[in-house]
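Support request, please re-run this one:
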Amino acid sequence: MIISCPCCEKKFQVPDDQVADKKAVRLRCSSCQHLWIHQFNNQNERASSARPDGDPKECTTLDSHSFEEPLRVAQPGPTPVAYKVSSTQKRLVWSLYLAISLLIMMPILVLMRYHIVHAIPQAEVAYEALGLEVNTRNEFFSFHDVTFRKLGTDAGDKLVIRGKIKYQPPEQEARMVPRVRVTVYGKADCGKQAWWDKKNFGANHFLERGLCVLDSWTFSTKDNLALPGEVIPFEKEKLYASEAIMPSEINLQFERQS
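Re-run finished. Output below.
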């Protein structure tokens, strides 16, 4: 309910629940501290103010000691207006969020592409389509100081292989270390050689020397990235418990990273 002060004529908002079922209320202006009695009729509010005679600017207040503490009225604040966002503005905001997300994610996807391709080999095609070389080839890895020996144990013959892997790329680029395939050659009945080994006869100098493939297995040396110029030492053992082997030569090759 809007009520005007009879002295300073300022308008104020009075809560309806404070004047409900009342014929008159005592009010005090929060601006000029004027005290007056405001009466209501049955149809609507009717201001019947105890306004003093004379100049309205020279208002006096009623004796506040003869009344209970009256209600204070306050200047009503502006009505809040709900801000409506248009669909164009919403699309603009979402486009901005998407652009910021891409700007944050793209450097991460580029820097972590070696780990991503190692975990998801199919991602290499997407990187190459974007012009980002992943370099899963192994031409910059090389073996050095490779030696092997056979040790006899109670459990059987043990083959021990030692060596180093050097990573020397032309650029400062880290890569995943490929797995190593070990092929063990020695004197045996080559007639029992697998057909895929026999077809390499003439291209494999081990087979030309009458050596047959005794065993072939793989191992890994490092699960994370190799830095340029890094040297990775390794020592691997394999136990042959069921039968004795007579290794004459071993061949180490890097497996193609998929």
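Helices lie at 16-19, 87-111, 113-119, 123-129, 195-198, 205-208. The radius of gyration is 47 Å.
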